[in-house]
Amino acid sequence: MSLAVVNQKGGVGKTTVALGLAAVASRRDLDVVVVDLDPQANATTGLAVWTTPRTVADALTADSDGALVGVVTQSGWGAYFDAAPRVAPSTPALAQLEPQLALDPIGAQDRLRRSLVGIDADVVIIDCPPSLGLLTINGLFAADHAVVVAEPSAWAVDGVAQILRNLDRIAERRGGLPTLAGVVVNRLARTRDARYWDEQLIETYPADAIRPAIALKAAIAEASAQSMPITAVARSGAAEAAAQFDRVLDHLLRAADEGADPNTSQEGVTDAAV
Asked: Which of 268, 266, 9 is nearest to 136 (CA)?
């Protein structure tokens, strides 16, 4: 399963969701690769990778099949899992590469897709930047499925509608891919306002809203701050948060299975987990 984690709005916790899914998938002994497409590189540091000789920027610059194979490296989560997730690390230099990609009139949008050829994994999670620039478009052209992350706040419904319109436009050009695996609500607080906006998202997207939402938990923030998986955090609330990520992963795997098309799935990516 190749999955793009997206929203055009920043601050909704896309990387938190991407790393939570990576953690619970690794706990199931699935082979996971996280592709960090965000120049902020939060997924990279969240996986406890601080320096690396090569990054996603090198693979996109190469513009060749399999270019990411030599970039993917072990994460720093090896002490927590028998099969720790691997990562294609990001770099702030990606921000400078994006306008250069726009100068390529032929293959600007599918460089990541080509670079993924030969990546052997059960689950590939692509953490996209919070915009619909060429980096996010590369992520959506590379993935077979997409999950939209939303925060229960004002204008969340409008933000989801905007990204879904763009997903549809890309799917029209890719023979139906990526399929929408669902909309996951992140950082659901125990407030009347948060519950209201969460209900609005469910009401607007009843078929796509993933339950449960990911609750706002101090344990999740601690996992990010310590660059460790949520499954390894010992404080109160961590087990509940991990269980929520587990149920979201179950939903995504089922949705990917139902939407799978063997004639169009990502070349080089193993779908053994689905």
From this structure: 9
Handedness of CA 44, 45, 46, 52 (dihedral sign): positive
270 within a domain of the structure (yes/no): no
116-152 tens-digit pLDDT: 999 999 999 999 999 989 999 999 999 999 999 999 9
String of DSSP letters for 25-62: HHHTT--EEEEE--TT-HHHHHTT----S--HHHHHHH
Which of 261, 237, 252, 159 has the alpha carbon at shortest distance from 201? 159
Kindly list the averaged pLDDT for each block of 10 residues, start to end, along the chain of length 274: 92 95 98 97 98 96 96 98 97 93 90 97 97 94 97 90 94 96 97 96 96 97 97 96 98 87 43 34
Domain range spanning residue 157? Answer: 2-259
Tokens linked to 155: 């204008």
Task: Please state, in angstroms and rounded to a whole number, the distance separating the CA atoms of residues 244 and 246.
Answer: 5
In a domain, 73, yes or no: yes
